[in-house]
Design brief:
Length: 137
């Protein structure tokens, strides 16, 4: 697989996107806030525009939210696509999450799971290594 050099603009949100992304991450990472549905919904709205504009961290986190916390198939499909975009850009969390999603009975694609987990493991993800071991059994 070809590797490509990512420009700084792909890795870092511009100044207009920085505050919403940081606020969304802060809300989601707070133990007393991040588990509330209303907070997840608000954080998702904050991440939506930066994700559309190609901010990799926003794509990754919004993709995780949509895949884990939304009950409908449309949102899960959008979440998987956002994770795919972030994973292609080299985001380890997105690669692990995508690998995990492809291991689920609903998505069950072991070759895709292996592909993304191997990429994440090559970047040092212990969780990806652990999931690869389970996938082999």
């Amino acid at each position: 697989m070809k590797s490509r050099v990512l420009s700084a603009t792909q890795l870092q949100p511009d100044s207009a996107n920085r505050l919403p992304v940081r606020l969304a991450f802060w809300l989601l990472d707070r133990p007393h806030l991040g588990h509330r549905d209303s907070i997840k919904h608000f954080a998702g709205r904050l991440l939506k525009q930066p994700a559309r504009q190609g901010v990799v961290a926003a794509q990754s986190r919004l993709g995780q939210l949509l895949c884990r916390d939304c009950g409908n198939a449309r949102d899960r499909r959008i979440g998987l696509e956002l994770l795919r975009q972030a994973a292609r850009a080299g985001d380890v969390r997105a690669q692990v999450e995508l690998g995990r999603a492809y291991c689920q009975p609903r998505q069950r694609e072991p070759q895709q799971a292996r592909h993304w987990l191997e990429l994440a493991a090559a970047q040092g993800s212990h969780e990806a290594t652990r999931l690869l071991q389970h996938l082999s059994h």
